[in-house]
Amino acid sequence: MMAIPIQQSVREIVLRTRGVSGGPVTRLMSPSDLGELIKPFVFLDLFDLDGQDPPMSMEHGWHPHSGIATVTVVFDGAVRYAETTGSSGVLPAGSVEWMQAGNGVWHTGAPEPQGVKGFQLWVALPPELENAPNASRYVMPEEVPVEGPARVILGSYGRSKSPIAAPPMTYLAVSLKAGEHWSFYPAKGHTVAWVSVLDGALRTSSRIPSGELAIFEPSGQSIDFVAEGNTRFVVGAAAKHPHDLVLGNYSVHTSREALRTGDKEIRRIGQQLVAEGKRSYALREYGNARASRSLPPADR
């Protein structure tokens, strides 16, 4: 009897985008578009500042968040950061920021003179964390665990576990040399999966060039990658966030009540800063955005 080879199915890409570029920053997804498809991953910026632009002002960059965590992965260069919690410093190449806004916090950042290149992700928090006290974790390069070609930013992969206490999900930063093969195996129940390429290109069910975000069909199946040239990328996987995305200007919550609670705390912190003679510019900008953008009608 002739043996019939079994064809292994390939996990298909169901959507891809190059986002919208605004100078050195490309918005690949937002909570109001693709974030709904791959929540808890709800926002992704690719940033590439080469140090040639005029210096950015830390003072003018202040803005608030609630209901989410921001995750910044620095591939090249360095970025300064500061929070209203009093935390501040510099994130060098290879480092990670986890800023869990919870019920509300303000922060800012600006590239160092040599520029900076990497990704900023927003993660929608579950109800038990969306209005909890804020918590931050800044992980230096030597503290980021490594599993093969992958740095483990969030969650666990193989025998490595991130030092960041995040909700269950996997987020990896991967570097492959030209022609190298690598397979990603999601954790059990993690049916949401996506990848975004910083430089180089990947071949999987189809080619993914640099600057693109690709979303895979819902499945627990592994994903095989081959690098075209030296390639760096991020890949995320999680169980689908089962809650609605209720949107503010810089916030994402699971209900209008939770959003109102977070917005009240954001405004309280902002008013305190104004009373101290600090950051009135940022509060004014927040007020203008709040009046004109996406808060629910009851909050306008």
Q: What attributes does this structure have?
A:
globular; 4 helices; 46% strand; nine-stranded antiparallel sheet; disordered N terminus; disordered C terminus; 300 residues; mainly beta; 22 strands
Low-confidence stretches: 1-7, 291-300
| Mean pLDDT value | 89
Oligomer: single chain
**Portion of residues in helices?**
10-25%
Number of helices: 4
Bulk shape? globular
Draw up the topology in text.
Layout lengths: L12 E5 L2 E3 L2 E5 L5 H4 L2 E9 L13 E3 L2 E16 L4 E5 L3 E5 L4 E20 L2 H4 L4 E5 L6 E2 L2 E5 L1 E2 L2 E2 L8 E7 L4 E4 L7 E12 L3 E3 L3 E4 L6 E16 L7 E2 L4 E2 L2 H20 L4 H13 L8
Antiparallel strand pairs: 1-19, 2-3, 3-4, 4-9, 5-9, 6-7, 6-8, 6-9, 8-10, 11-12, 12-15, 13-14, 15-20, 16-20, 17-18, 17-19, 17-20, 21-22
Structure description:
- The chain is mainly beta.
- It has helices spanning 35-38, 127-130, 256-275, 280-292; strands spanning 13-17, 20-22, 25-29, 41-49, 63-65, 68-83, 88-92, 96-100, 105-124, 135-139, 146-147, 150-154, 156-157, 160-161, 170-176, 181-184, 192-203, 207-209, 213-216, 223-238, 246-247, 252-253.
- Strands 1, 11, 12, 15, 16, 17, 18, 19 and 20 form a nine-stranded antiparallel beta sheet that branches. Strands 2, 3, 4, 5, 6, 7, 8, 9 and 10 form a nine-stranded antiparallel beta sheet that branches.
- A hairpin with a 3-residue loop joins strand 17 and strand 18.
- The chain is globular and about 60 Å long.
- Residues 1-7 and 291-300 have low confidence and may be disordered.
